Automatic annotation (TrEMBL):
The keyword Protease applies. It comes from Marinomonas posidonica (strain CECT 7376 / NCIMB 14433 / IVIA-Po-181). Belongs to the peptidase M18 family. This is M18 family aminopeptidase. The keyword Zinc applies.
Amino acid sequence: MEYSQFNDSLLSFLQASPTPFHATDSMRLALLAEGYVELVEEDNWVIEEGGKYFVTRNESSLIAFTTPVLDVSQTGWRMIGAHTDSPCLKLKPNAHVDRFGYHQLGVEVYGGVLLHTWLDRDLSIAGRVTAKTDAGNIVSRLIDFKEPIAVVPNLAIHLNRKVNEGFSVNPQEEILPILCGADNEFDLHQLLIAQLRQQHPDLPVAQVLDFELSLYDTQPAALVGLHKEYICSARLDNLLSCYVGLQALLSSNNERPSLLICTDHEEIGSLSACGANGPFLDDVLRRLSPNPEQFVQAIQRSMLVSADNAHALHPNYANRHDKNHAPAINKGAVIKVNANQRYATNSETASIYRDVAAQENYHVQTFVVRSDMGCGSTIGPITSGEIGVPTIDIGLPTFGMHSIRELAGSHDAFGLYKVLARFTKRDTLMTR
């Protein structure tokens, strides 16, 4: 895949994936188009040598893998990990709020949202709705309104004279989106039924039972900057890594046992049935290992590249970085290191990645948080701690992480894709 095709496809993927459910479905459709076979956890699996498979859980997490050989105890897996969720505003169960002449939506803050960036944006709603059909069956379907149907207006400076000296947003009172005036009738469940019938005309919807819906910014993802060298979009953290990992897996040509895992709920700690701190990956790998001894052998001959965005040095806030570990956008992916194991990188996994990157003539950067600041974490330490796989944490340098609209480098994304594609084909990881 060439640079322009890669980035055009990336923008389309970001646009089609406003929620983890939609991101997982986007990857599912891409895998099916490339001949991957969809497995169902409730069924018996028949795995063949030379096969390509994937499985989803909760419709928001996905594992895809190739099996050039069935016994991976001597080869191990070449694993790439990312997460499908992003900080956002989610609708509360009783979401309708009617106050002061406006129909509004009560929302819950999901993850570490930069709340002020959600003000004055054209917002839509997407997610999963569970309904009962005319026949009494309970089914779930994805919906996406796509059009801007909500907005959270800012407060005029005339009513908040000190706003430019710093302000906070109260998530209970001040971030509720406006849908329409109270002169209009509004029933959220009827709105959802109408949307289900529009998007799924063959589904005889009788009643909406529940939903998991998120707000999102309708402004399209774009290449920006004087030379179009930046990617500007919502949810770059971490759909950018999901897309890069997916394309790397599709380019692996089934040469080595390779696996992509994209899990939900990383932004809130990963502790769920479909999160990295849950049993999903372990469940899948044990179904692919004939016995416990071969399972351990396979894991110890494997390596996981945990790909999540990294903080680029912001020229307006340079003092927030350790000057010796200050990544720049479009200067290569970042190896993330933390002595307290907030990242899972060690000297061996870092060396393997550096060697693979060098074979692609791809520059490598390093990030260590300032010693007087707290450090975030990723699925890397969680996955490594759960199954014992050697792991490296890397990420693409990013501005505005957890903003409604983030910024990364288009050359970085394409370069990382080439490195990870080579990683999936690598024969020997470490010589003991």
